[in-house]
Write a structure and sequence with these properties.
This protein is an alpha/beta fold and 197 residues long. The chain is 31% helix and 19% strand. A hairpin with a 4-residue loop joins strand 8 (178-182) and strand 9. It is globular, with a radius of gyration of 16 Å.
Amino acid sequence: MNERTTLDGLARRLSALPPSVGPVRLVAVDGHAGSGKTTFSERLAAALGGAPVLHLDDLATHEELFEWTGRLREWVLDPFARGDTARYRAYDWVARRFPPEERELPAAPVVLLEGVGAGRRELRPYLACLLWMELADEGSWERGQLRDGPELTEFWDGWKRAERAHFAADPSRPFAGLLVLQCNEGYEMLERRPKTD
């Protein structure tokens, strides 16, 4: 592409991809914490006509920032592979536990998976497309800390160490087919040839 592209155009492109897990085109939106993944995913979901979005923050915990792959497989990927609606419990970051109530995630034509590590090695075989929010770690962490306020400074210090270790061991960016840059008006998508595992 290498040009400013509308979210509608990206939505059409993603919808035309072959399914990647059961009937679902699972699209990962990865990048550093604070890089704008959540906002971008919400806008892309709207362009897709209300596509479901799974936030990986719902599967992570205080003690397991990146050890959520088993839950994702059991609660989401296995049901999708059968064409079933997924059911998962969203972690409560205040109560520090998973509540008993379940949320549903339909096996829609396109489902967005949003969060740091969404493009990790274990998940790439299930992805129709991997998008990377192109914002350097320091810039995105600064945005995240401004968003969350000074009371979460200690959490952010621990998060930075954990995120650096995760991406050092299992980088996502080299495997992304599109880099997403936030502009003054909208987004710019840079197409690239991703590495393969």
